Amino acid sequence: MNAPLNIAVADLPGTPAAPVWSNRFRALGSSFFTELPPQPLPDPHWVATSPGCAELLGLPPDWAQREGWNALQVFSGNAVWEGMQPLASVYSGHQFGVWAGQLGDGRALWLGEMSTPNGPMEMQLKGAGLTPYSRMGDGRAVLRSSIREFLCSEAMHGLGIPTTRALCITGSTQLPVRREEVETAAVVARAAPSFIRFGHFEHFAHHEQPAPLRQLADFVIAQHYPECADAAQPYAALLEAVARRTAELMADWQAVGFCHGVMNTDNMSILGLTIDYGPFGFLDQFDPGHICNHTDHQGRYAYARQPNVGFWNLHALAQALLPLIGDSDTALTALEPYKSAFPQALLARMRGKLGLRHIEDADRALVDDLLKLMAADKADFTITFRRLANFGTASGADNAPVRDMFIDRDAFDAWAQRYAERLQLEGSVDTDRRLAMNRVNPRVVLRNHLAEVAILQAKAGDFSEIERLLTVLSRPFDEATGSAASAAYAGFPPEWAQSIEVSCSS
Ligand code: AMP
Ligand code: MG
Question: Which residues share a beta bridge with 108?
């Protein structure tokens, strides 16, 4: 492999300086990674850029085209900026409940840590070629899956859900990539305060290497959980803090109907971020048993199972931290808060989705009964909640739009009666509630068919739909701007959406 190409970054007079790089992860030492340059992507072109992510990183609006920056070559893996120190990290993990042994960044490359107005952000290229951890893979990502990761990262952020971000996609028509069929290669540049996963800890625990395990835990505490350093038992405190963040994340996912699809421990962020977008999906019709990953035959990662899987994965992390924590009772005690934190977080979000400001004992039953009706009648998850915002509490109010979501109208009417009484109990004002509900119930989510349309056009060389979709998904709570196209993003999925199959093959 060629040595990294050092390309000095020109600092144009009177404009923001080029990004400054450091790499604290690299300072951990060579047992954590292998240094290597990205593999070139032949004749790259831009596919998409995210203005929101660029702003987060403090990049100037013209960063992608800026003279002397060579951004297209850098973010496709053909060059590096001065200060970038590319490396692939090693991790292990449990896949589908089974110990999978060593994994690692098989197609992601850490570029380093960028100084940004929002603190240091690690940058990675996904799909930048073979690494020592590629196993049977080719180190590449196809255009299709890169578009999905790019759009969903930015969509999740738009929804207010913790996630890794995506800065851009570059592509090449000159590099065929073999999946079920031959596709073309693309590279996503993504950003996060840390890309460390549960699997990084599992790796060193499995290999009985307490020194790097401790080093990693100390690193994560110092960088991201400084409050744990002062705890009586810092490693147990870290575990508890991760458990709490994971509980919040699971509540976020459930509340918008997001299914991750591959909740293996190597795809679990130590910061509680949504990470590694593969065969994810948003619920169309509400089905608690929905399996978004075509290859998940057992439904291990079905929608309703995600919170329990999160807890299972936290047990794997606890097991990995055991040499540092000392005894399993302390570790289990650190996980205990998850059991109450998750249901509380979810109920709080569901109250918000129903526009309830006060807390009443019967709220849980009210929420559960609505979800049961939605499941029985296969009501569209996003549209039902969005329409519920227009619910009128006055007797004789026209609630037809939301009522029409249900086949069993009598059952809905009975529920609506309880809902109206509950709203009256707290003196809820229809207009105020509507505004509040429309701030938490998205009008648009990245349904599979929306991504599919953008992908099909992109494969034909037209990337404009990615940009339009990105704009809509960045503001998912906003009302339609009036254009017919925009309204279509919020509509029911077409018939053909049901035949879309997404799998791990990406
Ligand atoms: P995933 O569950 O998709 O996040 O990936 C599981 C493991 O497989 C990780 O170690 C990835 O880096 C690796 N991997 C996935 N796809 C590829 C690929 N095309 N080439 C090399 N490694 C891959
Ligand atoms: Mg992964």
Answer: 126
Q: What's at 332, amino acid-wise?
A: L
Q: Which of 39, 135, 301 to mutate to test the pocket of ligand 1 (most atoms within 8 A of CB)?
A: 135
Which whole-number Å values give the CA distances from 374 to 290, 377, 405, 477, in the listed order? 13, 5, 8, 21
pLDDT in tens, 332-359: 999 999 999 999 999 999 999 999 999 9
Q: Within 10 Å of residue 63's Cβ, how many Cβ atoms?
A: 20
Cα 106 to ligand 1 centroid, rounded to whole Å: 5
Q: Does 363 participate in catalysis according to the annotation? A: no
Neighbours of 319 (CB within 10 A): 17
The C-alpha atoms of residue 310 and residue 43 are separated, in whole angstroms, by 41
Rounded Cα distance, 186 and 226, in Å: 37
Model pTM score? 0.96
Say which of 105, 266, 377, 380 is annotated catalytic: 266
User: Which residue(s) pair with 178 in the sheet?
Assistant: 182
DSSP character string of 181-202: SEEEEEEEEEEES---BHHHHH
Cross-strand partners of 142: 185
